[in-house]
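note to self — DONT lose this again. spent like an hour looking for the file last time. sequence + predicted structure for the chain T wanted, 734 res
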Amino acid sequence: MRATVFIGAGTLLLGGFAASQAGYLDWVWPQGSGTRLVADNMTAQLQDTAPSQPAAGTPSSAGPASQPVPSAATALPRNTVKVDESALRYFAAKGDTKRLDAEIARLRALYPQWTPPANPLAVENTDDPQLDAMWKLYSDGKLTELRKAIADRQTAEPGWQAPADLLDRLAVAESREQLVNASNLKQYDAVIRIGSVTPSLLTCGDVDVLWRVAEAFARTQRPDRAKDAYGYILKNCDNPQERVATLQKALPLLARAPIDDLLAMERKGADGKGEFDSIRGDIARQSMANADADSKLTVADGDIARVQKLASDGGLVSDDLLLGWYYVRRDKAQDAETWFRKAHDKEDTADTAEGLALALVNLGRPADAEDVLYKWRETSDDVRKVYLAAVANLLAITPPPPLDPVVLQRMSQEVAGAKDAASAQQFGWYADSLNQVQTAAQWFQLALDWKPDDEPSAYGLALALWKLGDKAGVKQIQTAWAGRSERIPTVGLPSVETSALGNRMVIRQPPTRDAAPQSQTYVSPQPQTYVAPQPQIYAEPAPAAGPAQAERQAERPAARPRRAAAPSGCSSTLDPAGLAPEQALTRGWCLMQANRPIEAAAAFDVALRGTGKTQSDAAYGQSLAYMRAGLTDMAAVSATKAPLDSNRRIEIKTALLESQATTAYNRGRYNEAILALDERSRIAPERTGLMVLRAYAYLRLKRYDDAEQLFRAAAATGSHDALVGLNSVLEAKR
């Protein structure tokens, strides 16, 4: 389970601005020499980092489209250049005032001494229908057709030359198309190379290109250059919505320190309100979401306070959940319960109930957790696991608490339906503590049916059969476990202690209650035919010693603990607590190979007592074990128990974020899925399957242009899912 993050309405700006850049002429060159110098600096920056040779599969730099286009800084002397006003006349003739203004601004930036016509709309037409048609093709973005039209006319009219301005603009437009395609295909080195040879693209008039260049720097591990690119926009570009969108673009790609540098470029309005106030809450949410994925991250008190204020003022359940998961990951169960309770009071859903139940279990209140989560128990595997954890911890309380027969009955049905061996074993010890020995034997037998190598359940069954006087049954179990268990052969021997007191392995030790057990309560197991999820480390309680055993125990000194011998394999089940750290580590990997991740996690826990490489390997192994068992939160905690090398750290974090994204999408939390994928893409390339997942998230959020862009890129790799998704987008847009 991961934190739920909803980015504010400002996020929706991104899709709209990307779509608005489709027109190749909708850009304005920055005015003033100061702006041109910044653009030139950025061009030099690109050229300094661009690869000398294009990578295989990247758009070719050959041809007119890739030739450098002169920037304002490289323009010819102002008094000797004849200004080409072809585009100006075309837009004037068509009455396109928006593009006419853009063209006037561009020419002024290139030629400061040029004076536009007093009445641009009155400029005479070219009286050249073919040239007008060419400008129309350019205006519509039909670049290939424009190239052909120019070539055809030059063939038909050998002396005819296309206006230089049209050719320059066509080359820039083709370069832009190459840059966008490279960006969509995540060929980031190509993005930087194309930008370096086409400086006229790098202007405030086409912020989408600047965003793509900044992203290319970030994706190629050059965060300082990415920050500079985003900073160029904030220093020089004035469109308020694009400035806010720039911060939103940078947020998932840069660390907090450079984000703070960009925030410092904020402009204040006449009322003193900062232009980035609307997204500071999103930044605080992102900071906490990152900390949820990595428990070693420290969130600034200001960010926590901001999210708390947002939760209190805005009343969003997602903010309450974000705070709840943040605190539960840091073992602050009381704070976690406070925020999960607020979320649950607002909306009683599977998500809010799951978080609240987990906090209650950690607070030692498993009965309350079971009650909260019962009606949601079949929502998902994660919810069922938390529910069974609550059941197991409730049954593990010593002395056993008084439980309503209805509650006991429904818990037994769920344990049997899930075929959860650990919880069935727990029911066996619970029934035994109430002197329901026959019922205890049935539960232990069920646990062994579901997990034949479970030594604690076999031991419990042997004890129950011994209490029932079934010597043949005890002997049969002892024969089956000969050489695999040290304590099963001792059951029934008067000279050896047969109590398993103290042999518990629980998630968290709950407090005992003063109430007396209800010995009259009958807990009957009800076998079902459902398939169980992966068993958890819930509890392996021991039966209370009988009167005769207690007397013998009091008469003898306590047995001295012995170190277990190093196992030659891992076919048997044993308590790894007595192993040396190195032996426990070896056993953990053996159990992983045998696909017994829960037992492996327990062995790795013992190995964590070691030092150096042993401890590091144990933390890594336990993280993998918990992930295989579906316990991603516990896997994240394990990864922090010892230092990991960079490769392992990235491997674990990548897997956790991928799991978070998939879980969030499956639960309909598409914004959170996108955030997790964004964070994952910072440390590892995004595979085609995850690109398709991101596209579907965009589709569910009705960000159709973004979804179509990704589906097309993924479909180009042959992905059938991407083709299906692309068809869905086109249907939705129609």
